[in-house]
Amino acid sequence: MKDKTSEGMDTDSDVYRTLLESTRAIPWKIDWQTMQFAYIGPQIEALLGWSQDSWVSVEDWAQRMHPEDRDKVVNFCVSQSRAGTDHEADYRALTADGRYVWIRDVVHVVRNEDGEVQALVGFMFDISERKKTEQELVRLQKELEELSFKDGLTGLANRRMFDSVLSLEWSNARRNHQPLSLILLDIDYFKQYNDCYGHLQGDDCLMRVARILESAATRARDFIARFGGEEFVLILPETDAQAAEKVAQRCRTLILDAGIPHESSESLPFLTASLGVSTIIPSHGDEPGEFVDEVDRLLYKAKQEGRNRVESLV
């Protein structure tokens, strides 16, 4: 016959187990010497579909883990446990019907009086919804970053992206002693175009010009951006002055040949553009901002000289 003390302990044990098994967290215990499950909560079957008695050893735990997660998580948990360090691990657990559920294991290391690891106890939590939210936030963040470098109207890169790419190509050109060319393009009499046809038609015009410029730059590293307003810019890495001049002339010709009506133009009854182009092999004393200013001055000269022309130093 049990005494009152042992009866009380049994009652306490039953209470603790009832509390544990009534939560959504899944309690478990592993004997460190045998690497066998001493206990795992019955909630495991509802979550993963595997029966409670099928969790015999840590091998069952490891084999029911996504192959991409297995080595990393197992090695981490073993090393932390050996060191006697409490830890957490996130991984994808295989369900009995072949799906994967995101699990977070929270592990406490139990030591004996000699300080040796005796057991691991912990809880499994279903964090699938949290992971879905995290992944969606990552996707949205990536989309936001992409949008922050893209012009919303034309779909081309924007000024911010231009600054980043120019800085990168500038460093490459200086390091490899290669020519770097830049073209600035401005649509002629664009204010008058908007006044004549309206801003919606003006937006359509900008989008058409963007597509024309994309067809003019044929190499993978050629970079096109909307510089601002009706201005566009092309970065041509490893392109000498003569080749850059040809690209600029091709841009000008393609825009003219598109035959976009422009009744308010003071030069031709079709849309035209003025371009400035220059080439540099950057040295340590040169600055990209000064180079852009130089090309901008050439663009201004092209407009002053009558528009629908390319101005360069060639």
From TrEMBL:
Pfam families: GGDEF (PF00990), PAS_3 (PF08447). It comes from the Bacteria. Its EC number is 2.7.7.65. SMART domains: GGDEF, PAC. It is an enzyme of class 2 (transferase). SUPFAM superfamilies: Nucleotide cyclase, PYP-like sensor domain (PAS domain). Residues 87-139 form the PAC domain. This is diguanylate cyclase. It comes from Thioalkalivibrio sulfidiphilus (strain HL-EbGR7).
